[in-house]
Amino acid sequence: MEHIGRKFLFVMTILTVSIYPLMAQGNGSGGWFGYGLIFVAVIVILGAVVVVSESLLKVEAKRAGVDLQKDNSGLFGGFNNPFRSKFPKYLRGEKLHLLKKGHDIKLEAGAKASKPELIHTTRYALQPTNYRGIRPIPKLEVEEGQDVLAGQPIFYDKEHPEIKYVSPVSGEFVELNRGEKRAITELVILADKEDIKYKEIPSFDVKGSDRTALKQHLMAYGAWPLFNERPFDRIPNPEQDPKSIFVTTFDSSPLAPDFGIIVEGKEAEFQQGLDVLNELTDGKVYLGLDARGREQPHAAFAEAKNVEKHWFRGPHPSGNVGVHIHHVDPIRTGETVWTVDVQNVITLGGMFLHHKFIADRTIALVGNGLKEPKYIKTIAGANVGELLTSNLQEGGNRIINGNVLVGDVKNENQYIDFNTRQITVIPEGDYYEAFGWLIPGALRPTVSRSYPSFLFPDLEFKADTNSHGERRAFVVTGQYEKLLPMDIYLQHLLKSIMINDFERMEGLGILELSEEDVALAEFACTSKIPLQQILREGLDYVQTQM
After folding, report:
1. Structural domain range at position 56
2. For 133-154, how does the pLDDT look when each residue is reduced to its tens digit (9 = 90+)?
3. pLDDT tens-place string over residues 376-411
4. Is residue 121, in this structure, part of any structural domain at all?
5. Which of these, 470, 512, 140, lies nearest to 327 by C-alpha position?
6. Parallel, antiparallel, or unpaired for β 184-191 and 228-230?
């Protein structure tokens, strides 16, 4: 109502100034004074009608999920810029989802759009811990010291020996690293210095074969781990078909890479991958596209065939695949949905076009802990230290495999994950703030108005790892629901997880969530509660009960 009142006050001020001379002349003539009063009364009535009409329009817009202010709509929609259209032309006639809940965290040191720099490291690692749902000690098919080809099976899970996990590069298998309880964490390969040698994948007629044969082909040649099954985010069960498959073509998280740069030059592989996905479900393949910009996304996405396109417009987490699933084809009890990363779709398509398992990865190196944020091109499982050689700022830095909300901490001796598309480096926030928010300090990213940061919505902030507080009592604040664009009472769900109330967890929608969906709420949490950890514990518990 405040913006309506300001508009009405502005109009009234102009009109009052305009009729003041007439009213002044009324001192000598009662007629002019009376006409002035009637004029003001008419304007007041019209103003009241405008205010009520705008309010009713706002109610209907809220019911329909439309943000009048953000989308330049309403009775005064064109007041600020009458020549600007409501939405870009490329959205006309498309399935558009307008999301109001969420928050964009804008940070400094993003990677500028440019051709990725090619970096080939000396060592790569296949990491069983990247694949949720398999046993911690898989069965190896190679021995240390043995030469391997890119695409050659390296290990398999004993419960599903038909699903092969293959090497991303060719070279010598030189090292096996173990973690807690002797779990295998890394299978390290010393890569060939020359060109990569690939294991040949036989031709396969996707259209002329049945689904069972296609599944067997994908499992035998390393493609099955490219898929992710929800709920639970695990390797899919080969015996169950998904009701639908989702591919999201953008990421709304802080400093996220531009997927247009990732798909550039791989348009044919991407489309071929989508065609293969269509053969794996009786439902639809849904493509989530970015509707936030004035320009249309990359043609490989906007003009993709054999998919149902859905456009999403709004703040983070509008790019999360879980949000797309919730608004397009929600997961019910007993159902499964697959999600596939864009780079995995490209790898899948390359298997059928080039008959090779090509695990190339385009990665954004970002964060103010780097000297030069940039895009690079490497291969899945590359050594972290070699990717960041001579690019780290002096002082203590934290290397995050992913974004600042959901990434895992890595050191320079470790390796990127199979699905990595972003590495973020930010300074360690190992300092103490006396009196915390009570004392004015530097601007920082926040969803509250305790700091003046909210006055500068487009300002980019310097990030570090300081959490600006410690864990406190878990109190009801209503923060979470304002940041999650799903019909889920997140705070109630988390409390049901903490008491292991299975029926309540299921009823409150735990099957629709993954860690990335609650990461923004964890960032904003006044109580500093580890929401992602709690959610994963709940998902693991539900999985044991189903």
Report:
1. 2-86
2. 899 999 999 999 999 999 999 9
3. 999 999 999 999 999 999 988 999 999 999 999 999
4. yes
5. 512
6. unpaired
